[in-house]
Amino acid sequence: MDFISKNKYTLYGVAAILLWSCLVALLRDISELFSPIGGAAAMYSVSAIFLILVMGVPKFSGFSKRYLVVGTLLFVSYEICLALSIGMANSRHQAMEMAVINYLWPTLTILLSIIIGRKKVSYWVYPSMIIAFLGVAWCITGDQEMSVDTLVTNFADNPATYLMALAAAFIWAIYCVVTQKISNGKNAITLFFTVTAMSLWAQYGFSNEAPLTFSISSSMTLLLAGVVVGSGYALWNQAIIGGNLMLLGTLSYFIPVFSTIISALYLSITLSASFWQGVVLVTLGSLICYFVTRDKPQKYNVEVTT
Known about the structure:
Order of helices and strands: HHHHHHHHHHHHHHH
Number of helices: 15
Radius of gyration: 19 Å
Number of domains: 1
Shape: globular
Strand content: under 5%
Mean pLDDT: 89
Distance between the termini: 30 Å
Number of strands: 0
Largest sheet: none
């Protein structure tokens, strides 16, 4: 008990990371139970309500207008691209590919930071980025020969989802770099989730998706998914108060591995050895980027996502 009390904030962060690792599996399940857009709208609505109950209604006066506008636009765009890339994938396996593409965001965040900051970095950062991108290509090609033709063929199978997944990775990288400079250490996550839900409902209203139908089983899954995602953000807000951010920052780079394991078990997917190798390469590339570009421990300011 003494260990738990002394490390409770760090444990909150670990729990948040594990909950975020469930996002891909839950998003895919919800899209199959309901529909890609309508299901995502319902899930984010549950998360928004949960966050309001736990964290309260945000006071807009405490945030800068620039943060509210830019942060909301980037966050909402990211969540919509991520949710729909997974929900609209042709299969569960393809949904896993979308998730791996999304996990390029740590590498892209570092790349943007280097470009914007114009600071000298270790030459190791560039091969590590290549490793991360190579890992994505490895996952997409699977047991096929890795070539440009193979990548193009797989992309042509469902170009919209691949573009949304890649857009999500870039958008979140921009979000991490930009909001760190304009948020003043504050977090409007409750507002962001609320606007995300409203945007998805608006998109659902203009779509051709059928009306949502609810059963006891699907409703329970929806409630679970919304609470799990909302809890991840609520716990992370507590973790950054007094947790070991160096440990949590490092651990967060293993989310692709955790997410793949959880998704494979939850969705009953058998993944090839090459897919697992690709996931490891993405994680390894991101970790090397992180360690060769990190600041001193006391300067850490960690942003984490799904």
